[in-house]
Amino acid sequence: MNAIAQGYSVDLVSEYLESLGIKNYMVEIGGEVRTRGRNDKGNLWRIGIDKPLEGNMIPGSDLQVILQLNKRSLATSGNYRKYYEKNGIKYSHTINPATGYPAMSNLLSATIIADDCMTADAYATACMVFGLDKSIDFLGRHTFLEAYLIYSDEKGEFKVYHTPGFEKYWTE
Fold it and tell me: Do residues 112 and 128 touch, judged by C-beta distance below 8 A?
């Protein structure tokens, strides 16, 4: 349940704000975000995706990309902050429900954009369990989601896969 708790909480707060007639807000809980309208400067809400660097423990300190969102939700799941290391092997905090063991793959970060935050949160976590290839296949069949996946290649260099519609959210 923890895989969707923050996204669900974001949705609850957002729905409450909307019930009060609030038309401009950004709700963020633990990095999961839902937006509507514009900020106090009249601009669309800007949301950063962190680079999955080892030691990047402060959200927003080293960004991979910045997005603009309106009436959308975003969630990122990754294995670069929460992990256990033993004998030089890093074990992700994300557990594969099929095996009961930590999910192991070269996928470092999965960001999902969806209409609601619980959905984005659930699918971001699912992608971390699927790994890169299964995530790409899954996203190709679930076109209501937009995704930005950061992974490491065989040389350990960062690479990116994103769905075709993801670029419309990029900003400077």
Answer: no
